[in-house]
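Quick one: structure tokens for this chain, please?
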Amino acid sequence: MTKLPELVNTSKNRNIISILLFLIPFSVYIFGFRYMGSGDTVASELLAVTLIREGNFDFNEFFTEGEEMSYSFTFSGDRIVNLYSVPTGMMNVPVFFAADLMGIDIEKELLPLNKVSMSLLAALSTVLMFHILLKRRFSIDLSALMAVVFASGTLVWSVTARGTWQHGPSILFLCAGMLLFFSENRKAFAWAGFFFALMCVNRPVNGLIVLPVYAFTLFHRRKDFLPLVLTSLIPLAFLAWYSLEYWGSLLSLGQGQGGKFTADPWLGIPGLLLSPARGLLVFSPVFIFSILYMVKDVFSKGGNILYRYLSAGFFLTLIIYTVWERWYGGYCFGYRYLSEYIPIMVLFLAEGWSRYVKPKVWTRVLFGILFLLSVYFNFLGAFFYPSGFNSTPNNIDYNAGRLWTIEDTELLRLNSMFIEKLSNIF
């Protein structure tokens, strides 16, 4: 069999692929304007409206006294504010501002505009992922393939492009930070701290992912540590102002939610990795190669030092969520709590390619099968979720054992819905 020629890594080819990696995923994400948030996202969906109209972060103008509110709104003093952090909602401002200039009723078209904004962020993250891999000196072909995995075989498609969750902007911030962090330009490297800190302001638990990166810089690139920290202070200054102004305390970290560390990690750890209803390796089985690389190569003698720190971030994130009272993320699709780690999983997949995928025909075939399954499962999530699994026959919040059932799963239900739709068409 004649081997297909490899693309040459030229500026023209990089630009063409970048454009395609933005336009094609965005077109797929936006198709049908199918939006799916939750009670968690309601305040973030509305935040851009109040920022544009009122220039502030409270929602008092939308509610009359005694009116029932979604749980994502809460009182802080006499203000109605977002229970969760605000950078996610702030990321909608450019789209909402443009729509407002065009005369669109931004409150009436609230959810479609949220859909456009989150789809744009997901498509932009895909382009950044492509350039991250190029920075790591992977071939242009492999970098493009891994970017496609990122865009279509993960929760980037099925969750972050479909709703105003904190995970989508967090992934974008991480990708931007990683791209700068891998730069050989020291000034560019320093600005990685801005995006890493922004990721943490957006979702404080993300500190478990990025703090090991700061530790790596301190111990292995000490001269670059202070510049990295200085750019981090910009988002942190905003967090301090917002926390004091709207919550009255720096300790609030810009949000009002709380929780309990009451779950059993011996259930949560396998649950987040292998549960039929939430497992990372179930909804994106192609990441089996990423885990293999992490376990066999990263911590072996001569393994990449930076990747050891990145892996430590994964294990810390896994542990903290598995002792959280709802380790499975409540009503959601797939491994939502681990979605911020998708860019690093894709990086590890690329790193493991030459050793675990490329050498043999059967491993390439296996990769192809797992990749197609990953795409199919996230296609089901993007176009058919919810199936009612989370609430029927009973509420998973009170019957978490259902997350381990094999005969009745979210994916099986969604697959049946898809087949039924096909039968009605043909």
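Residues 15-36+112-425 form one domain.
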